[in-house]
Fold these 2 entries.
Entry 1:
Amino acid sequence: MKGRIAAVLVCLALAALPLAAHAQGIATPVERLSDQIFVAGREVWFEHLGISRGEPVARVDDGGLASLLHILGAKMQYQPGTRFVVFTRADGTLITFTVGSNAVSVDDISTAIPFGPFYENGEMYMPLLALSRALGLYERRFRGGYAFAPQIISVQRRVGQHRTVIEIQATAPLAWRSTYGGSAKHPTFIVTFPGFANAAGRVIDLGGREARTLVIQRFGPPGFPITNMSIDLMHGIKLAAHRTGAASLDLVLARSERDLALNAVLATPSVQVSPRPKPAPTIVPTAAPTPEPTIAPQVSASVPTAVPAPEVTDNSTAMPGASPSPAASGASPSPSPSPLEKIMDVSVIDTADASRITLSLTGPVSFEWHRLADPDNRFWIDISQAALIGPAREIAVKLATVRSVKISQHQILPDHVVRLIIDPSQPVDVSIGAIEGSPNLLGIDIHARPPPADAPSSGVGLLPAITQLPQPRVAITAGHPHPNVIVIDPGHGGNDPGAINQQLGLIESHLNLAIAQRLKTDLERDGWHVVMTRDGDYEVGDPNGNDDQELQARCDIANAAGARLFISVQVNSSVSRTPSGLTTYFWRSSDRALAQTIQNAITRASGAGDAGVKRANYYVIHHTVMPSVLIENAYLSNWHDAALLAQPAFLDRLAAGIAQGVKDYTGGPPAP
Amino acid sequence: MLAVIAVLAGCSRHGTAPPPPHLTVYYCKAGSDDLVRVPFSVDSKLSGSALATYAVNQLLAGPSVGRDSVVLFPAGTQATVSTEGDMATVDLGGSVARSFQSGAGDEVGMFKSLTYTLTGLPGIKSVQVLVGGQKKAALPGGHLEIDEPLTRETFAQ
């Protein structure tokens, strides 16, 4: 009897399963939402916009959704009554949503989402945030609406004998404007992508032969973003832009006109931009007389079943002795893809005796690591169930004892494994852990010292349930790889206006930017190359991130730029009306002289009161590795100072004073 | 009746010697980041976290009228204070956790006064600031690094 009851219960449970699964896709309340939606800088009108479980949703047949996809060069395939909604991104990436499923498949890589498409009153609704992420968009919630913008997802540098090619890949059709700036001696080529909004600024080292650096920065308010690429060209270098696909662009930098043509080095057929799978165009120099380094192949997560499974290991990063990929040896595809975590970004902070590589993950992962004995000394970390966003690549680490660090999608089947390999010239000590306060950041610290004698040769770990590494503490100057670069950091911005003088309508974040822009002009006139942490009224870090990330993002820009100096520009305020004048702050004792020199020059040039040089542990002058100061340019809370700050001529004098202080301290930029 | 109570209270105060002050609260001097020492008399039985809480509450309440000192914590700031070993932990909430809109100079003065007040208590050498229960690099909209314990050395020139 008991057995019969149990069997009935099991049957009932099994019968209920599909119902339960389907129930997730129906009868979900949708409240009407009247928010504005901006896509790539244009407002898009939705007729059937709603909110469900706290997220915006739109009916799949809404004209607004069609407009959104049209702007992004994406397409939707959907048959009423079916359970699948398939999107094709401009770069060919295939996205599949399933009604009632809390996962989305992006080129066959499955990712968890809060909820999938669902039916209400016979109409299918699509969750917009999940769609936005699958489309690779940068999203921003602002008062009264949402802004979605495509991003530049990959910038790769390829160095040939006579030229450098910069390959740019985006998630939507690229449109751009370009202009030359800077001086004849230090020309700057600026490419502007209206409607694009990269989440964070980046500085890419271009080696110094054709160009020094490429800086990516986002400008503009959430609804009307702009992404700028600024290339600091060497004297006499020409540049040509070639569209290589709807969402891809090559910038060619060369001294000679004939090397600017796209086919100058790349023999026909030189460029193959495969619509699928995935971004990075596979560029094969087939018969070039001077072969350029082959780009590491983009690993595809898509495994065609009708043909032999592709080799998925990047040969340039494969470890000797590592077990071959089951895919390469003909294993059948895994029938049940489990949710993967993505490695969205890889960044490096260098100090004199250590380098920290930080992997930004979308969720918890497990990993194992191995160390080879001396004299090989290689160290590798395999991160399971993880997908590397972007191609396999080498990570630039300045530590002298490290020859190379590479990361690649090492394996796809049966497990997705991302492998990071450290190849040192002598034994190094490596520690791995979650970064304190940032559970989705995996930190790998490489120390220029031998590991302890009893150090194990392998181990496993979990993120975030593993040892937490302290926040990066960069206390030692790593040298000045770019001695002609100065980073200016206009304080506050975006949602953080800083102090406000309501009587005069003065906002600190605006004043900081106004002074910083004048300072930029002055420094560039003196021959410096200037990198701004922000050039508009926005947050430097991820606007959805916390305040800690905002401060660290500013430091990251300066550290990545390898700048000679870091200058944070602020305006002071107090609860008391009494304090007035200028103060220059430093933290490291070694920066006192810089602070005093600037303070002397700025008080002399501006005529404002001298409130002295002071030491304070402000985050941005502590966590930048180069000489750093934070200048408080008078008090908004003081009537006399505020009246001065309202005059553009006073802002000119402040900027001129800071620039003079820089000149007095450095003697000017080094000769090119 | 009220008069009688007042007289009795007065008699009581004059009849018992006040306990010696053993708490100093450091307020900021108006217009600078110098500190102004203000002694307080407290119940001699008060110690540990209770004493630290009393000190911070006095700091947040501000100086008495007429003194040349100011309270820099935004109105509405709340604090939960505890001590363990030689460290006091102050969890700030309320207005201060939303956005600090004063300048960098006031921010230094604010944390300097907090640190000096608490490290003036017996056995306390450092102060760990939390915001909403969590360590933060700085206050929202702020500049001064507070993710590590503050000591008087932090504010040394």
Note: Chain A has nine helices and 45 strands.
Entry 2:
Amino acid sequence: MTDRSPGSMPAAGGEAIPTAASEGRAKGDAVRGAASPPGAGLPAWQWALRLLWVAIEIILVCWFAQKGLMFVYQGF
Amino acid sequence: VSPASVDLFSASFWLAAAVAVLLLTPLTRVFPRQLGFALVNVGFLLALIKLRTLGAIVGVVLLHALLRACADPKRGSLVLRVVIAGGVAVFCFHKLPLPAASAKPVALLESMLGAIGFSYVLLRMVDVARTVYAGRQPPPGLVGLFNYLMPFHMLAAGPIQAYDDFVAGLAAPAPAPSAVNVLSGVERVAFGMFKKFVVAYSIERLFLTAFMADGWYFVLEMHLYLLWFYIDFSAYSDVAVGLGQLMGVRTPENFNRPYLARNMIEFWERWHITLGDWIRRHLYVPIQLAWVRRTGGRYQLGISLVSVAAAFTISGAWHGLTLPFLIWGVMHGVGVMIATLYRHVLTRRLGKKGVKAYLERPWIRVVATFVTLEWVAASLVVVGWHWEFRR
């Protein structure tokens, strides 16, 4: 297959134009590449703590969906 | 016709998520993985918009045929233009308000476009069409194209995955399910839900007035709106990335602490990263190359600035075909132009090493971050302002 992408073409004069906007590509790629989850070989208490926090978050989400904010309003 | 959109609190979304997470790994052994994911995506759309899903499938079949023609060296250029022009026409139809007395088929089409998040589908369409036309990838199969255009977990608010990245994900072996991976994915989804439905919701309900207040509260609200916008928007990405991790479907990150950016160029490398990438690949670079060819390589800085302005104005129009979004796009374009120009002037005066040393000074970092943040906050006021209340 031939590469017809504009990004692969050099600018006139044979040299790609260095632009500030293009400099971020490497950084963005680095961000996407860093997806491996931390925590391999986690001790049991850390597992428990993380699961507890997840449970608290989900309970709060459900509670807010039903009546949570009204309670906060009344508090004011 | 009742309007439909992807709601993170809807039963159909979580049912699709649960089915996808539970079945995709076992399905890997029965079906090809892509077919399993396509069944989940179609099932989700059927639950959301019922028989209107057929409209989405017909659209994908049509695009599939056009993409095959896109790869043809003789007709490719013309077909690419047809795909982009057709996509933009449908986008305008979708974004512009419908007359009250529209025919039922028109209303059905509009509700289908809203449900699949056509704004994002258009960007994916352009990406796959230009990638195939450029010859970097062969035309996709029907199932792969459907999964690329309408993955249920990325319909609500992106990310906008590049087609190259999607293909790389297909080539990679299906990840082995592990407890750590599952915990990490569940944490990400729960954190996204917490951010959206607890933190962002509280800020909105307790503090935001759509800029109805004046004086010091206006300044406070400007910054709370900035905070709310990031928390609310990035929450969608958290849910999408977390679900992607649980399903073993590659889903790109979309945010990287954007409010720590020192200028507007860096901001777009950290905020809605996949859109920033898309703007660079499909607007900025092509516009710049067209001007370079026309001018024979002269006026490089000027061309770069004009390309930035054009790219961000179009980006503003993509966000909404309204004056506030156009102003927002122009403001971001101006911000990137100023940053480009400033960096150019600094490099000429201090040299590359001098610029690096200058940018690393702590007070420069603080001032630059503050100015960038305020510029973004001002741009968000334009779109957050409750225009109809102020008229």
Note: Residues 7 and 13 of chain B are 7 Å apart (CA to CA).
